[in-house]
Design goal:
The chain has about 300 residues and is an alpha/beta fold. Helix content is about 25%, strand content about 25%.
Length: about 300
Amino acid sequence: MSVRELVVLGTASQVPTRHRNHNGYLLRWDSEGILFDPGEGTQRQMLRAGVAAHDLNRICVTHFHGDHSLGLAGVIQRINLDRVPHEVTAHYPRSGQRFFDRLRYATAYRETVALTEAPVDTDGVLARTPAYTLDAHRLSHPVESYGYRLTEPDGRRMLPDRLAAHGIQGPDVGRLQREGALNGVSLDEVSEVRRGQRFAFVMDTRLCDGVYALADGCDLLVIESTFLDEDETLAVEHGHLTAGQAARVARDAGVRHLVLTHFSQRYSEPEEFERQARAAGYEGELTVARDLLRVPVPKRR
């Protein structure tokens, strides 16, 4: 049975707290696992969440600030220690190659896995698989940063009433799907487009075109909201978003489920992030993330 869910490993920003680990997010997408922004302590959080190195197929790093990347060393070494049998691909800003190299070889260990490096240096498609297309968009932060987006290919939804009207049933339904037409009846006449699911991951950034491109029409949007609205000046200065800004992006982009995360240690009441997001006009499903939370990708429309 396929599973599509977000496993939240950490939700702090620059400084972890007693209750929030540095960043780390695993997206389970059917048989694949994509790890986003493994901050310090990610390997231990994976253990607590029941996530194994064998679950990882890709690692996506938005930028090379420590709270988003210091966990790379441990995760990469664990992948090798466990002899993960499949290819693991790492995406990260090409401008941070020297940081990636230092983290990959931070200490001595035995390499047993062919880790594929696929750095990002421009907006566009990074990978195409039967299950999704992965692309990246540049964000606005003091260091080069990219957000990531998965888009499932559109499919077809068969319409039982129309099939019945044309007398198509049993094995003939599968034949029609494979061949596109049967006895003069086209696939379009008895089905409709089933929109593919969309997921986006947006970390440290000011408002910019890339944020909106990533969020557009998402079923599940994971987005930083480091600051509350009263500290918007600080957010802009340091290259971050507020809860209200993130919610307005989600509202305008038609996001179905909004996940706020990456909270400054200065705030002790997470419910205020939800209040400000609702005040900004977002009416969809809303989650203020906490460590070790699991968030399912919404069912297809």
